[in-house]
User: Fold these one by one.
Assistant:
Number 1:
Amino acid sequence: MAIAKAYNLKQAYQMITSGKQTEVELAFDVDADAFFMLSANYGDSGAKITRHNNHFVLRLDQEETSASD
């Protein structure tokens, strides 16, 4: 599946919580507060945040997304 692009924080949260996307690229300037908030909210559940080109990509654990279906 292709990486979905979120262009603001609200859109990122919508994509992540929908369970339809396993990877969401944060295609906007993420400030430190937003980055640590995303890390705290989703890191404990197994999500990974990596750097891809010039943006961060939040990759959700497959088990987490299939459990929300």
Number 2:
Amino acid sequence: MATCEVCGNDYGMTFEVHAQGQVHVFDCFSCAIHRMAPICEHCRVQIIGQGVEVEGHWYCGAHCARAEGRTGIVDRV
């Protein structure tokens, strides 16, 4: 068994996420999201979907990017 790095649960069905040269261990998707999802730099929500990255800054969508003064950003629907 392995231990979730967020909640500390010692669980037989943990899973690993390999990202940017590191290995993270979680017991559920909500713990993985809590630890790994970027935060929108405008409205501060965790970005679970695609999000928008502009010059190294993360936003949940084009609206928030534009609110921070970013230009030329369009949501794809």
Number 3:
Amino acid sequence: MTQQTPVSKASGEGGAAPAEPVRDPRLLTTVASPKGWLDALRRRLRGGELGPIPVIVGLLLIAVVFQSMNDRFLSPQNLSNLTVQIAAIGLMTTGVIMVLLLGEIDLSIGSVAGLSAAVLAVLAVKQGVPEWGAIAAAIGVGLLIGLIHGTVFAKLGVPAFVVTLAGLLGWQGVHLYLMGSDGTINTSPNGAIAMLTQTYFVPFMGWAIAAITVVLYTLSVFVVERSRRRARLPYKPPSEIVFRAALLSLPILGGVWVLNQYKGVPLAFLIFVGFVVVLDLVLRKTRYGRMVYAVGGNAEAARRAGINVDLIRISVFGIASTLAALGGIMLVSRNFAASVSTGGGAELMMAIAAAVIGGTSLFGGRGNAYSALLGGLVLGAITSGLLLLQMDTSVRFMITAAVLLIAVIIDAISRRGRKSHARGGA
């Protein structure tokens, strides 16, 4: 193995530092310069760590192609509509990502979204329950369903595929029963339900949210890196933190500027992004998140390490179905109605496709919450572009299938590259 000497901030005091043991390349600190950052990026690519690069490149290509075919694609109005459109599927995708991290699959999220939408509409319209109360009840139904699925899977040993396939059929049946002969229940266009997708923040609020986001990110990274420095662990220098914050600010401030040209930043998109950020922090910064990755990587090893594998599995399915219920609520809010077709169309396949396209591995143990945002943007951009070009739904399905296949191929190739890199470094 070729030895690599990490750049240590703790060395160099009182003369030459002794030779350090070889470390995992992912723990190496980088020189605070463009060359250092490029070297770190090169190491990650050689190790099969592609990250979000393929998705970002794909998004740029999609934007260039559709803008060249229709100059309204990148208009503020179309981009604003796109952010609202992806909120429902994006929330469902976020739940799918949790299940995929375990190396499992949940086929019931579309039916759960539809059932939650039916519960919401029946309670709010037919039973006269206040809309916020109906929203809470619909979310509770999603959580209960997820806990049932997780318990049957974890405690009884029934494969997740079978459990959630039964859920897909069963909960869809309950959905149809609740809707009754009406088929469609219209909700108020001015109530709390409608507010979720019809609320836009004034420009000042949009700028304030963007500024607070960048500042909080920068301060949190400074705090974390200062703790790592005090513990004599590899850490990022201040110049790199500032550089990363500047890079983060570009899409955030640019996005707010574009959205402010139409109606402002939509609440629905902020809700979606908020769940993505919170879930990402949970997965990366908490003990629970590390246990999820451990169970997805090797359940038996996690069990021997003292992790309650059954509890992790039950909780993950509970989170997934809760987020599916939130997606169903967003569908009702956007359409001002719940119907027998809510959640029963292509929502399931789109949510799974968005998770994989965004970079979550089908093999378990690899991925992050931001896959929902990236994958949702890719599928939303494809749908929006094809609608502007007035192409048939069949074309959208074929293009989505091709993009999904490419994403899976990239995942398989990068997985093979990680294995080869690990063998080469052994």
Number 4:
Amino acid sequence: MSNQHDPNTLPPKTCSVDRMVTVKEDVEKVLAGKKTATRRNGRYADVGEIMTLEGQDFVVNKVYSQSLGELTDEHARQEGFESLEDYKQSILSMHPGMPWLPQMRVWVHEFSAVKK
């Protein structure tokens, strides 16, 4: 079960929303509607904050902590991958030497396109 946080009790952000999605392939997935969440080792956004990618705005809907052991294929699809194994291999290829530990916690940032 995910550890949902009250937005008023979240710890301070560790980075800014403009750094949340930066990898070209991920930006393309977001713009195509195939990626609706990103997991980071720090908290990059507050609920309601706007991320702008190539002129398109996306609003952050949820921010919560989750362990890697809680991830499912559905979570991987939120990230734009077909399966958890595909997502895991992509993350490990970007972070050589990083172990995939079930107890390791990440920050989930769920977002959606702002309708104009």
